[in-house]
Structures are given as structure tokens and as C-alpha cells.
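Students often ask why inverse folding is considered easier than folding. One informal answer: many sequences map to the same fold, so there is more than one right answer. In these notes we will look at a single instance of the problem. The structure comes first.
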């Protein structure tokens, strides 16, 4: 049996009670996975550009009065992964890359801020725009030596016993080596979770639930169960992170008179950064802000009882705003109508539907519609030649393009994405993580603690000070 390590967080429960000035009854803990300072700046600069001006149009969370810069290195690596980064933000302790809420040697489990909130009698929710068993959300309720133990992470959820979970789905709901074991979804229902699916949660059903799990629809999961669609790709029938936050607030608020702790991840900022897809990065950051806006509206009704913290586990991609010329053209990204990941699927469907009519002229027309090429964005002869070469490779069945951590693109999608990035003057240093600073924004009870330059392990410790009793 694993021993639980009583961490610095737990010890602080006794210490902070002696001098805490005011107590937060409602705590929102947002994590923009992969969201460095430039991702935030890109979103604000893009919004201003759409208004036809140079400058920024503030996001809600970036307008919070208290701001800190956060170090993100892990215990073993100068550049963290999401498991170690999530662990630091959840437990206040550093660990080895790949490990979820355990010590680096995986000998001891670490106690998360969510668990401490539960022990204080608060209702607890964990939500994400990706799968619930992914590294960052899992850091709040699981204890695993390897982040890929998805089925075991699903069992850890049962042990945590939190009140609300939300995301796309679970990556391994059945045990691959034990086919007779009941699926996780059945185990969740047996444990008292009401499982709701779809873009419009049933409020009456949620009101009657003892514990609640909100997932995207079966149709959406059949297309992609790893995450909610990118905001850039989302349809009317797709679940939104803002809807998840609304549902979580309604449920958690009635669940306990002692208030709630609610951890929410905007997970696909990271995915878009891995793919170096600037348009998707910006729209995902704005989408996270829309979810934060829901919490902020709650804060306005309970300003003396609420803390909102918005931070990140690490930066992804080494995103740069400017590639040599002393200007930006982020407004051009508005002409990209879908993520490069989705465009790969779109162009494959177009190829199938058109058959022999899948000509270069047909593809040019489609690129114009979905990227604004030749109309809003001028294409050089060299760039057109690159696009045509990628089209010919697609027709020949040799269309392999960019492969990032979470997506596979064909060469045409990769080329189109690269051209629009260059037109907007957005650069990337890699398809992986970096050790760039990430921000922490805060408002409400205890928010003044978030200032200066701090380590990622300090973020949960300072949040804990706001609600520890």
C-alpha cells in the first residue's frame, strides 16, 4: 500500500489558520495548459487588431489586479511536462516528469489542494476541456508513477470521491487485460455519480444528483474522445468549457454549505501550441477567458467570499510575436476557419466526396474559403508552389505532414498553417514545452499574495492560505 505524504500544503492548514485574514468560501483555480505570457499577449493583441488598432484588448483574467510571474521547472528537468507541472500546481511539491502527484521516486503520494479542500468539508470539482484522466486534471485526484496509466487514473477518481467532474471522456474506460472487469462508467454510476452528456446539461437531472459527471455527447466522442473540439472547430451541439463552469458552479454551490474548490483546465491551448497553430492557440485562450468570465460574474455576486486564480503549468511552443519585421499582422488569423487538425479531416472528406473532381482549382477554392489565401492574404508564387506540391502528394497518397504530440496533419494542412503563421508574423521555437515564465492572475480574497516572481509550488500554497480554516 502506498503511504500518503503529508506535504507542505497539509502542514500549512494548521499554520495559516492562526493568521488568515478573511476566508474564501469559493475558490476557482484555472489552469491554461501551455499558456505562457505570449499566448495571453497574442490573444489580447489579436482582439485589438480585429478592432483595427495596435495595442491590446484586455481579457477578463488578464485584467485581474494581482499578477505574478511563475517558474515551472520540474524536480528533474529544466523543462517540465504536464504531469510534473500539474503536480506542482496541485500539491505544492515538485516531482519527476511523467509522475502524477507522487514523489520523484514514486514511493509516496502527495496530497492535493483539492483533497485538503474536501477534508475541510468543501465541495470539490475538477473539470477540463480534454479527457478527465489527462495529466493536469489527474494531478488533483490521482497518484500514479506514470501519466499514461489512464485506466488506473480512472480508478483513482473513485478513491478521491470528489463531487463534480467534467471533460470529454475517459481514454481507457475498460481494462485491456481484464475484459471481465466492469467499465469505469458503470463503476462511477455504482459510486453514485450521475453521468450527463451533451452540450446542454439537464438542470433537473443535475439538481437531483448526489455526485455529477458531465461529458460531451456520444456523437462527439465517436469523432474524437480525447478532448472537446477546438473553439475554432466547435459546432452548436458541442460542449463548451464555459458551460462546464456554469454547470459546476450550480452543482457545487448547493452541494456544501462550506463552499467549494473548483479546478478547471483549458487543456487545448497546449495542444494547439504543440501543433504550432497560432489561430487555434488564440481562440483557445479566448475560450478559456470566456470560462473565467463565468467565474468572474459569480465573484461579482460574492466578492468577499471568492478567490479566482488563473495560471498555467508551463509554456508550449516558444511562441513569439514578431519574426524579424517590427510589426504584427495577427488580424490575418481571423481568416483561418478551422484548426489544422480539423482541416486534415476536412480535406480528406473533400477528396472522397469530389473523387476525380478533386482538382488543384477545387483545392485552391477551398483554401481561399478556409484560410483567406489569394483574397485576404496574398500568396507568393513560391508559397503557391508549396501548396500545390502538398496537394499533389495528397492525391498520390503521400501526404504526411506535421505530427505533434496530440495531432497528425497532412502536408497540405501543415503548409497552409505555416503560411498563415508567417503572414501573421508569429514564430515558434519548437513543438514541445519551454521553460518560459507563465503568468498567475488573481482577484478576490487572498489575491494580493500573487505578485512578484514565484515558483509554481507557491501557487497552491498561496491559494490555500485564502481558504484554510
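Output (designed amino acids):
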Amino acid at each position: 500500500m502506498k503511504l500518503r505524504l503529508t506535504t507542505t500544503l497539509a502542514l500549512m492548514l494548521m499554520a495559516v489558520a492562526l493568521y488568515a485574514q478573511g476566508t474564501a468560501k469559493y475558490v476557482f483555480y484555472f489552469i491554461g495548459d501551455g499558456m505562457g505570457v505570449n499566448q495571453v499577449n497574442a490573444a489580447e493583441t489579436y482582439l485589438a487588431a480585429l478592432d483595427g488598432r495596435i495595442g491590446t484588448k484586455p481579457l477578463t483574467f488578464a485584467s485581474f489586479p494581482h499578477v505574478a510571474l511563475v517558474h515551472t521547472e520540474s524536480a528533474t528537468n529544466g523543462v517540465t511536462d504536464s504531469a510534473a507541472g500539474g503536480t506542482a500546481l496541485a500539491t505544492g511539491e515538485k516531482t519527476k516528469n511523467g509522475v502524477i502527484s507522487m514523489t520523484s521516486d514514486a514511493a509516496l503520494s502527495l496530497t492535493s489542494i483539492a483533497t485538503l479542500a474536501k477534508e475541510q468539508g468543501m465541495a470539490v470539482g475538477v473539470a477540463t476541456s480534454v479527457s478527465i484522466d489527462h495529466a493536469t486534471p489527474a494531478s488533483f485526484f490521482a497518484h500514479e508513477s506514470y501519466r499514461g496509466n489512464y485506466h488506473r487514473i480512472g480508478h483513482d477518481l473513485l478513491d478521491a470521491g470528489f463531487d463534480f467532474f467534467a471533460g470529454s471522456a475517459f481514454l481507457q474506460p475498460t481494462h485491456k487485460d481484464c475484459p471481465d472487469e466492469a467499465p469505469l462508467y458503470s463503476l462511477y454510476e455504482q459510486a453514485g455519480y450521475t453521468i450527463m452528456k451533451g452540450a446542454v446539461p439537464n438542470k433537473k437531472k443535475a439538481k437531483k444528483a448526489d455526485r455529477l459527471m458531465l461529458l460531451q455527447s456520444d456523437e462527439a466522442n465517436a469523432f474524437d474522445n480525447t478532448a472537446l473540439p477546438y473553439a475554432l472547430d466547435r459546432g452548436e451541439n458541442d460542449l463548451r468549457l464555459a458551460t462546464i463552469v456554469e454547470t459546476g458552479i450550480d452543482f457545487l454551490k448547493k452541494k456544501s454549505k462550506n463552499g467549494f474548490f473548483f479546478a478547471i483546465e483549458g487543456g487545448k491551448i497546449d495542444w494547439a501550441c504543440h501543433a504550432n497553430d497560432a489561430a487555434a492557440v488564440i481562440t483557445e485562450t479566448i475560450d478559456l477567458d470566456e470560462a473565467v468570465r463565468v467565474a468572474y460574474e459569480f465573484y461579482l455576486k460574492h466578492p468577499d467570499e471568492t478567490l479566482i486564480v488563473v495560471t498555467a503549468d508551463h509554456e508550449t511552443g516558444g511562441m513569439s510575436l514578431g519574426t524579424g519585421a517590427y510589426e504584427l499582422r495577427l488580424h490575418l488569423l481571423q481568416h483561418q476557419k478551422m484548426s489544422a487538425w480539423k482541416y486534415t479531416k476536412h480535406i480528406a472528406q473533400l477528396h472522397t466526396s469530389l473523387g476525380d473532381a478533386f482538382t488543384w482549382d477545387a483545392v485552391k477554392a477551398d483554401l481561399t474559403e478556409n484560410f483567406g489565401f489569394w483574397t485576404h492574404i496574398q500568396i507568393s508564387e513560391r508559397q503557391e508552389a508549396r501548396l500545390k506540391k502538398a496537394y499533389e502528394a495528397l492525391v498520390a497518397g503521400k501526404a504526411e505532414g506535421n505530427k505533434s504530440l496530440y495531432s497528425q496533419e497532412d502536408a497540405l494542412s501543415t503548409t497552409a498553417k505555416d503560411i498563415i503563421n508567417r503572414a501573421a508574423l508569429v514564430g515558434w521555437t519548437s513543438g514541445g514545452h519551454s521553460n518560459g515564465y507563465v503568468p498567475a492572475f488573481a482577484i478576490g480574497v487572498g489575491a494580493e499574495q500573487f505578485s512578484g516572481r514565484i515558483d509554481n509550488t507557491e501557487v497552491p500554497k498561496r491559494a490555500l492560505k485564502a481558504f484554510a480554516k
